[in-house]
Each structure stands twice: as C-alpha cells, then as structure tokens.
Specification:
640 residues, mainly alpha, two-stranded antiparallel ribbon, two-stranded antiparallel sheet, 25 helices, globular, disordered N terminus, disordered C terminus
Length: 640
C-alpha cells in the first residue's frame, strides 16, 4: 500500500515536469530574439519607462501559447495544421507564416553577428565578427543536420542552466531600481518610442517563434492526444510555459537595467543613435567590477545568441517542412525537406551578413514585422479554440486576454506606424478614381475581348496605353516625401499583365517607367526597373495560374512585386545608398505601397468577378477553357 502511494506521488510529480523541454526551447529562442544589444539600448533611451510593454506583451503571449498548446494536446496536430483550416483563401495563414519565417532569417543573421562581436571582444584580433558568425552558423548546421529533437533539447537544457546561473549572479550583484521599475509599469508612450514599442511587442517573449512551441510539443508527445491525455498533462504544459515566460521576463528587465545603469550619467535622447559597440563597451564597463565579469558576460551573451539561433532554425525548419509536405501533398521524406529548409535558411543568413553590418537594425525591424503578424494570428487562434471540444477550450478570461491583446497589437502596429496613416490611407484615397476608371473600362467591348482572349494586336496596344497612363497617374498622384515618391505606379502594369500577359504588362510598365525616370531623383533608375518588372511578372504570374487570379493570389502578387521593388532593386540600383537611407525607405514606403496596390488589385478582381468572366490564359500553345465555377479547368487537346 505504501509502495502504491509512493508510485502515485512519483507519477503525479513526474507528470508535472514531463513537458519542460519545449518551454526551455522557446525561452532560449525568446531570450536571443529580445536581443542583448536591443533591450540594453531601450533601457539607455527610455529607462524603465517601457516595462509596461514587457508585462502586457508577456501576459498576452502566455495566453497565446497556452491556446496553441491546448490545440495540440486536444487534436494531435500542430498549430500549422490548424492554420490551414481557417476560413479564407486556401493556406493563407501558412503562407504568411512562411514569408515571416523567411524574413526572420535576417534577425538570425543579426543574432549571429552579435555573437561574433562578443567573441571578437573575448578574443580580440582573431577573426572578423562576420567570419566568427559564419563559423557559429556552420556548427549549428552540423548539430541540426541529424534532425534529432532529443539532441536539440539536451543542448538547450544546458544553455538554460547557464542562463539561470547568469540570472542568479546578476540579481545578486546589481541593483535594479525597484521604484523606477514600478513606475515603468504604468502605461505611457514616450516621444519617439512607437517603433521601439512595436519591436518590443514583437520580440519580447519571442516573435512568431511562439508558433514553434506547437511543433516541439508535438515532437514531445509523439502525436498522442485526446481528452484523458489532455486532462493529465495540460497542467504540466502550463507550468512549462510559466517557467519559460518568467525566465524571459527576468532576463529582459536585467538587460534593460544594464542599459539604465550604463548610461545614467549621460542619459540619451530618444532620437539619438546608439551603436552596438557603444552598448557592449558600456556594459563591459559595468560588469568589469565583478571577478571575471567581462569574460562571463561575453560568454553569456554569445551562448544566448547561439542558442536562440539553434532553437529558432530547428523549429522553423520543422514547421516549414511540415507545411510544405502537407500543403503540396509531397511524397518526399520530411527529414529531406527539413534539411532543405536548413540549407535555404543558411543561405539567407549568409547573404544577410554581406548586406547588413549592424545587427541591431536586423533585429529591430524583423521584430516590428512580427508584432503586426501577432495581431492577425491572435484572432486566428481564438477561432481555432472555438472549434475544439468543450473540455479543451479556453475560458472567458483567456478569450478576453486574447481579444484585447490582439486588438492592442493591431493598434500599436497600424495606428502608431506613421507610414500607414500618413501615406497608406491617402494613397488608397487617391487611387479610388482608378477604381471608377476600371469600372467604366469593364463595361467596354475591348475589356470583354481581353477577358475572352479575342483581343487583337491593336486592342492590346490600346490596353498597354491605357494602363500605362494609369501608371503615370499613380506617380503623378503619389506623395512626395523627402527625395522619394510614395505611389501606386505599379498597379497599372500589374493589371495590364494580368489582362494581356507579359507583353502588354511590359509595355504599360515601360510607359510608366519612362515618365518616372524623367522626374529624376536618386531612386529613379530603381523605380523605372521595378515598374517594368511589375508588368512582366504579373503576366507570367497570371499564366502560372492559368488566369485564375483570386483575391488571395492578387495580394501575393503585390507583396512579391513591392518587396522586390524595395528590397532588391533599391539597394542594387541606387548608387552609394547608406544603410540608414535604405532602412528609412523600407520604413516609409513598403507597407503603404503594398496596401495601396493591394486595394487597387482587389477592385480589379471584384470587377472581373462581377462581369461573370475569368481572366483568359493568353498563351496560344496552352489553350484552356475556364469553367464557370472558376474552380477547375478543362484542358483541350493540342491541335496537331
């Protein structure tokens, strides 16, 4: 009897600690994503004034991750399987996650560069930080190549022990200004803190790394699920998450305190820049009073960056390989796809090393993007939770926190992001006239002939001229800001390309490009090339989908075109552009131009649907008839 009682007690407490691994993976990833340099810099600029952002963010993300965990334990699926079930265009949630995960490789490049800087301070003169970062990346690739969750969990447990040891040391040696921290818990928005708040909300407690918790939990459970399994282990999962987010909270406040202590004498203004070297040098000065303090801090910092990249790449590779396999219904082994993702991630990170030299820029802007995505996926998680069995659904308190948190993220991301208010909405207002023109055009015979594939060369030239003029209007009615013009110039060529193919789209693009180039300016060449590319790419894009362009595909087209415009053509074709100018262009123009052009294309797709027709596949060697339901095509035999 006593033996049975001991066994029950042992079983009970072992259940509580069964799922500590996934939370540690998330905590280590989150600690690195918050960024030593970034949070220290925030402390230097704003003191403890943004502690309230940390608290609000962690409460929301704890609820967010708990919802993900409940979904996995109740269904035996990862959250990425759930995202495929959300109403709307097929796989839209998965595609957005995939895009963000690829963009976040820039953040991992920043983490590894930061780690390289720490090693360079530790062993000065041995190698350049970027080379040390590449060596670290090679070690990570070697550790992950076997695709062993158990190995990764063991490594991360060791890293977590080092983190706990560092925290204990820090708490015993530094005074964290308790009254100032309490004052910082009162919500306030200091001048110039909008982007910083976005970055904190995106990075503290992890960005979309949170979704990866579901992947690690699925690996831990082996796919088991059901009511009895859920009720037995949900408390263990919540404990795992509570410890993870508590660890992140303490680490974040300590880093913020280092920034406050280091720059308290010469408190920085909100608009002043602070280099990574300045941050590290000042922190080293602070910890230099401790025995081996400098060495311990540098090793500690490198381990955080290394561990965050290790766990982040592993989780993303598992998630992306799983998404691709299910979405495309591939027979390829998931291990092969996992390794392919690792190779792709590695290539993107290495490319980032040569385009960016300041890791804090990479970390901050990728985190700001993640904060926008949380607003979207918070509501998606609520929807999925309502589809679960009653025993596994969230409480009313959980729904309240999720709804309020998602709304707050949306407010911070969109309202405080001045580019959308100052430029995005005015651009949308100005292109409404184009919507009226498109409506009138949709009632003409030439529009019907283009849709049906009956247009001759003269008709296509007219279309190129009309949409070329719309492209010119997009520039003329653009918003001049400094030396750039925020515009919807690419809309005309994209619509022309969808209607008439790459030739018509390219001609319309040339018309709009020539006008833009005639205005001059340091971005004239890049904008000219991007406008022509928009028309050509839209034509090939339409052919790829056999003319079946819906709202979702139209949005994807715009995102691809504008990202290539801003992220590729600008740095390649603008002479002597500095990193500060490049980041400024991205901040000011990318989101407003995406929003404006998506709005224009949505109007066009709506008018096409209203006409009862579908875009024609204009390629003569690949004739197809689109069925009235728009969901299938009937392939005609080629004429011999």
């Amino acid at each position: 009897m006593i033996k049975d009682l001991k066994d029950r007690i042992k079983s009970k407490y072992s259940d509580y600690f069964l799922f500590l691994g996934p939370g540690l993976l998330l905590a280590v990833a989150a600690a690195g994503e918050s960024g030593l340099g970034e949070v220290v810099e925030i402390g230097a600029h704003f003191g403890f004034g943004l502690v309230w952002v940390v608290i609000v963010t962690l409460i929301f993300k704890f609820a967010f991750t708990t919802g993900i965990a409940r979904y996995t334990l109740a269904t035996g699926e990862t959250i990425f399987d759930g995202l495929r079930k959300i109403p709307g265009p097929r796989n839209w949630g998965v595609v957005f996650v995939l895009i963000v995960y690829l963009l976040e490789m820039f953040a991992f490049a920043g983490m590894l560069l930061m780690g390289g800087i720490f090693l360079d301070y530790l062993i000065p003169g041995v190698n350049a930080p970027w080379l040390l970062a590449i060596i670290s990346l090679a070690i990570i690739l070697f550790l992950l190549w076997k695709d062993s969750y158990e190995r990764i969990e063991t490594i991360v447990v060791i890293i977590a022990i080092v983190l706990f040891s560092g925290i204990i040391l820090a708490l015993s040696q530094f005074y964290l200004h308790g009254p100032a921290i309490l004052e910082g818990m009162v919500p306030s928005i200091p001048p110039g803190s909008a982007v910083t708040i976005m970055a904190l909300m995106g990075s503290v407690g992890s960005g979309l790394n949170i979704l990866l918790y579901s992947v690690w939990l699925h690996e831990k459970t082996g796919g088991e699920f059901g009511e009895s399994y859920f009720r037995r282990y949900i408390k263990s999962v919540k404990l795992d998450l509570l410890l993870a987010f508590s660890l992140v909270a303490v680490i974040t406040v300590i880093f913020m305190g280092l920034g406050v202590s280091g720059f308290v004498v010469s408190y920085l203004g909100h608009g002043e820049d602070l280099t990574v070297d300045a941050v590290i040098s000042q922190v080293l000065y602070i910890v230099g009073i401790l025995p081996y303090g400098i060495t311990a801090f540098l090793i500690f910092g490198f381990i955080i960056m290394f561990g965050a990249t290790l766990s982040g790449m592993d989780g993303r590779a598992r998630a992306v390989s799983s998404m691709i396999k299910r979405a495309l219904e591939l027979d390829t082994k998931e291990e092969t796809l996992y390794r392919g993702c690792l190779v792709l991630f590695t290539a993107l990170i290495i490319i980032s090393f040569f385009f960016f030299t300041d890791p804090s820029i990479l970390l901050r802007h990728s985190s700001a993007i993640a904060s926008i995505m949380f607003a979207v996926f918070g509501f998606a998680i609520i929807y999925l939770d309502r589809q679960l069995p009653k025993y596994s659904r969230g409480s009313r308190l959980w729904i309240t926190i999720m709804g309020a948190g998602s709304a707050l993220f949306l407010y911070i991301a969109l309202i405080l992001e001045n580019g959308i208010l100052e430029f995005g909405l005015p651009l949308v207002e100005r292109l409404l006239l184009i919507g009226f023109v498109l409506y009138l055009l949709s009632k003409t015979e030439i529009f019907e002939k283009m849709l049906d594939g009956r247009a001759d060369t003269f008709d296509k030239l007219w279309m190129a001229a009309i949409f070329g003029a719309i492209s010119i209007y997009g520039t003329y009615r653009g918003i001049q800001y400094g030396e750039i013009i925020l515009n919807f110039r690419d809309l005309g060529p994209m619509v022309a390309g969808l209607l008439g193919g790459p030739v018509v789209g390219g001609l319309a693009g040339i018309i709009g490009a020539v006008y833009r180039y005639s205005l001059g300016g340091w971005t004239a060449t890049a904008c000219m090339a991007a406008t022509i590319f928009a028309g050509l790419f839209a034509g090939f894009f339409s052919h790829h989908y056999k003319g079946r362009i819906n709202y979702y595909r139209a949005a994807v087209l715009v995102i691809i075109v504008e990202c290539i415009h801003i992220l590729l053509f600008v740095p390649l074709m603008v002479k002597d552009i500095t990193m500060e100018q490049y980041i400024w262009i991205i901040d000011v123009s990318l989101l407003p131009m995406i929003i404006a052009n998506i709005t224009g294309l949505m109007i066009f797709i709506y008018l096409v649907n209203l006409s009862g027709r579908y875009l024609h596949d204009y390629w003569p060697w690949n004739k197809k008839e689109l069925q009235d339901d728009g969901a299938a095509t009937e392939v005609e035999e080629h004429e011999k």
